[in-house]
Amino acid sequence: MGLHSKTFTTKLFAFKCDSYYNKKCLPLLLCVGLLLFFYAHILQYFAKLYLLQCHLNSVDLNETCLKCGAGWELHGGNCYNFNTMKSSWNESRDSCKYLGGDLVKIDSREEQMFLFGRLSNFTVNEQDKFWIGLTDSEEEDRWLWADGSPLNSSLTFWADNQPDNKSLDGAAEADCVRMGKKGGADFLKSWFDTSCNYPQKSICEKAAETGQSSCVYG
């Protein structure tokens, strides 16, 4: 068979082309090409349907998802807002309440690690620290969280020689707690007491919101 000779066979007919450019061959070639094109797209469509069905079978449509609003960061079922506007402890707490939360309550070493790690993005110098929801303003040395619960003595992260009841602004009492950078081997020990009126940045916390069928899957 010559270089430009070819036989095309279908279920309906068969004939011999003397040339690829034969006018009788071109329509057949176009038809075969179109059929292959549509067949490939049909296969792709059904493959996507199959993958979608597999995904739906693996997802509980009633699954509860956790989410936070704009300006909040989700971590461990709670939302955190790092407020870089400096104000007193009480003013900072009011700001947190306005946003639907309160000054942060630290319940675990893991939470302390998370917060300390995030603060590195917001601190400029050693005195650039953040209010947390811990105070002994009601009774000296009786430390309470903002929600009224007592501080767990086995879960504290006081810096060395803290609390020392010394205020940065010369106030008689240092009844509120801030956290931030410090030197030393144990970087988690980063709580300091100072006057509640000394302007500081702050960390707000609130429970994450829940919703159904709103998860984002990577």
From TrEMBL:
The keyword Transmembrane applies. SMART domains: CLECT (SM00034). Residues 75-205 form the C-type lectin domain. Keywords: Lectin, Membrane, Transmembrane, Transmembrane helix. The keyword Cell cycle does not apply. GO terms for molecular function: carbohydrate binding. InterPro entries: C-type_lectin-like, C-type_lectin-like/link_sf, C-type_lectin/snaclec_domain, CD209-like_CTLD, CTDL_fold. The chain crosses the membrane at residues 25-47. This is C-type lectin domain-containing protein. It comes from Fundulus heteroclitus (Killifish).
